[in-house]
């Protein structure tokens, strides 16, 4: 049987694999040797979707940190609130959403809001910064723009 020479394959600094393989080995042996290497080579470059997802996670973590700092919430509750706020904003971009939040005076406010007219009104897209703890929305019932603190958000109401 003929043996191939030892080959070193390095694509990045952290990826260095020594390969020993014998010619004439069964196909499953060759596949089990090369498939992990091929998969790791594909992972070197981050796709646009992965970059976007990574950016969204960073934004979510930043917003949770600000909510936690301002309100004294534990880490889990701050992450859950930040995630819910993100879901609320995404839904309001597509139409009317019924939700509840606690007002500054302690009463619970039931609101129906949207963000569909934001760009028309303010001549720029609604892209909230994670350090901003206010959530902006157009109140359908009051016919005006309103804000509330992100840490006061309770839930999205299911109709």
What does this structure look like?
The protein is an alpha+beta fold. Helices cover 41% and strands 25% of the residues. It is built from four helices and seven strands, in the order E-E-H-H-H-E-E-H-E-E-E. It has a five-stranded antiparallel sheet with strand order 6-5-4-3-7, covered by helices on one side. Helix 2 (48-71) crosses helix 3 (75-94). The radius of gyration is 26 Å and the shape is elongated. Residues 1-22 have low confidence and may be disordered.
Jot down its keywords.
159 residues; alpha+beta; 5-stranded antiparallel beta sheet; two-stranded antiparallel ribbon; 4 helices; elongated
Question: Could you give the topology of this structure?
Answer:
Blueprint: E1 7-12, E2 15-19, H1 27-42, H2 48-71, H3 75-94, E3 97-102, E4 108-114, H4 118-122, E5 134-139, E6 144-149, E7 153-156
Antiparallel strand pairs: 1-2, 3-4, 3-7, 4-5, 5-6
Q: What profile does the largest beta sheet have?
A: 5 strands, antiparallel
Number of helices: 4
What is the average per-residue confidence, as pLDDT, rounded to a whole number?
76
Radius of gyration: 26 Å
State the secondary-structure class.
Answer: alpha+beta
Order of helices and strands: EEHHHEEHEEE
What's the total number of strands? 7
Instruction: Give the overall shape.
Output: elongated
What is the strand content? 25-35%
Low-confidence stretches: 1-22
Distance between the termini: 72 Å
Order of strands, widest sheet: 6-5-4-3-7
Relative helix content: 40-55%
């Amino acid at each position: 049987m003929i043996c191939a020479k030892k080959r070193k394959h390095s694509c990045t600094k952290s990826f260095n694999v020594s390969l020993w393989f014998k010619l004439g080995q069964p196909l499953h042996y060759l596949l089990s040797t090369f498939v992990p290497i091929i998969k790791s080579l594909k992972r070197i470059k981050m796709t646009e979707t992965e970059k976007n997802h990574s950016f969204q996670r960073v934004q979510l973590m930043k917003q949770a940190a600000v909510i936690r700092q301002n309100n004294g919430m534990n880490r889990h509750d701050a992450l859950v609130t930040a995630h819910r706020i993100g879901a609320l904003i995404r839904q309001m971009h597509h139409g009317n959403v019924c939700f509840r939040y606690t007002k500054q005076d302690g009463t619970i406010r039931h609101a129906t809001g949207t963000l569909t007219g934001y760009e028309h009104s303010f001549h720029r897209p609604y892209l909230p910064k994670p350090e901003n703890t206010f959530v902006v929305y157009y109140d359908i019932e009051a016919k005006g723009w309103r804000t509330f603190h992100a840490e006061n958000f309770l839930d999205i109401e299911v109709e």
